[in-house]
Design goal:
The chain has 10 helices and 13 strands. It is of the alpha/beta class.
Length: 315
């Protein structure tokens, strides 16, 4: 029997990517909504209730509305918005963090897919906090670069406009007030005592991102080096098919450059530990539309269905 899936918000970037990935799957029956009814609550409720799994690819308020429409039914909700990532009763959709996270996804009815920047940050910081390498009150700072697809349909259109402003041809730092919407989950999921400093940059390419965290070696619980942390991450994420850790002779790191679009189109995430014995830079490189959005959502669905986590994805 095929799993009935409804994508609420199928016209957005994430919704379109999820829909595309289902085209080659014979175990999924997609429930479609008429374009003129895509904002109609009665029709959306009908399809949510008819589905086995509903993906929410909507702005936060619309996602909350859809969750309310789903009350009283058994449909699993996988939400890609910011609305429920730190909400009680929702499983956080990052199964590699711990067996508890994976179990919560497998058994849950409400799954919140991590934010793209948060995915990169948490992949680096959570394991260090979990094992006491990084103290919870460490003043963590992070910077990141991302392609413009993560900013939504309006931004994609603006970057594709031949008459666009010249500043769109360069990297642009934003969230200058330190109020980025991913900060809440970055702090809560990792368990940090203070909100991290975070400076993201949007640049003139379509997809892919790098998130980096900088650490002073002498401020860690014990002395670490880039080499020892590479080994630590390799052990922590052992047998996790979506997460790879760079080797000591990794060609990308050895080149001295880590490109934001280096893993565009791939659904996994790669971790680097660079720097020296005094100052260490940890970086995660991935596709903001893959492990940072639609790929992660489908991975969660695969876990719920009990099939290969990578089914339908590019690894």
């Amino acid at each position: 029997m095929k799993t009935k899936v409804f994508i609420d918000g199928s016209e957005g970037t994430t919704g379109l990517r999820i829909n595309e990935r289902f085209q080659k799957r014979d175990d999924i029956e997609l429930l479609h909504i008429s374009p003129e009814l895509r904002k109609d609550p009665v029709e959306r409720k009908r399809l949510i209730h008819e589905s086995d799994i509903t993906f929410l690819c909507l702005p936060d308020e619309a996602a909350r509305e859809s969750v309310a429409l789903a009350e009283g039914e058994n449909a699993v909700i996988i939400d890609t918005s910011t609305a429920h990532r730190t909400k009680e009763g929702w499983a956080y959709g990052f199964p590699e963090l711990s067996e508890a996270h994976k179990t919560a996804i497998a058994q849950g009815k409400r799954i919140a897919v991590p934010g793209c920047y948060a995915t990169g940050f948490i992949s680096l910081v959570y394991p260090l906090i979990a094992e006491g390498i990084l103290q919870r009150d460490y003043p963590v700072s992070s910077f990141a670069i991302s392609g413009y697809s993560g900013a939504g349909k309006k931004a994609i259109a603006a970057y594709g406009d031949a008459d666009r402003p010249r500043e769109l041809s360069s990297g642009r730092e934003y969230a200058l007030t330190q109020q980025h919407k991913h900060l809440k989950e970055m702090q809560k999921i990792t368990g940090l005592a203070r909100t991290p400093l975070f400076s993201p940059i949007i640049d003139d390419y379509y997809s892919g991102m790098v998130v980096s965290v900088q650490l002073y070696a002498d401020m860690l619980a014990k002395r670490e080096t880039p080499e020892s942390l590479r080994q630590y991450y390799a052990d922590y994420y052992k047998d996790k098919q979506f997460i790879k850790v760079s080797a000591a002779d990794d060609e990308t790191a050895a080149s001295g450059f880590l490109a934001g679009n280096g893993l565009s189109g791939w659904d996994g995430l790669k971790i680097y530990a660079t720097g020296n014995e005094e100052r260490i830079v940890l970086s995660s490189q991935f596709d903001n539309l893959g492990k940072g959005a639609s790929g992660a959502a489908i991975q969660c669905m695969n876990i719920i269905l009990g099939c290969d986590e990578a089914k339908g994805l590019d690894l």
